[in-house]
Amino acid sequence: MKYECPWCRKASFSFWQKQTLGPSRTIPCRACTRHVGVHALRAQLASTPVLALGFLGLVMGKVLYANLPAVMLGAWVGITLGMLVTAPLYHFFVPLVKPTA
Questions:
Q1: Calpha distance 97→95 (Å, rounded)
Q2: Hey, what's the torsion of the CAs at 45, 46, 47, 48, to 10 degrees?
C-alpha cells in the first residue's frame, strides 16, 4: 500500500512510514524531497483508542485483581487491543498533508 504525496501527487510513502508520522514529525518525499506530515487533530483523535483502552486495562486490572502483575497485564492487553483499532483508523482517517510550520 502506497500513499500519495500532497506536493507531487506520487505514491511514495509506505504504510509503516505513515504509521510513524505524528503531529510534530515529518518525513521527506522520495520523489520531490519536500516534507510531509499528517493532519494534527485527526492524528490525535485516531490515537484515542490506544489511550482509552490502555487506561481501561489498568483500571480493570486494579479493580478485579488489585496486584501489580494484573494491572500491567491489563494495560498490555488494553494497549494491544487499542493498536488493533488505531492502525486501521489512522490508515483511513488521517490524511497526509503539507506541513504548516
A1: 6
A2: 60
Pairing of β 11-14 and β 2-4: antiparallel
Rg, C-alpha atoms of the chain: 17
pTM: 0.78
The total number of structural domains in the chain stands at 1
Each residue's pLDDT tens digit in the chain (101 positions)? 789 999 999 998 998 999 889 888 999 999 999 999 999 999 999 999 999 999 999 999 999 999 999 999 999 999 999 999 999 999 999 999 998 76
Determine contact, residues 12/2, Cβ cutoff 8 Å.
yes
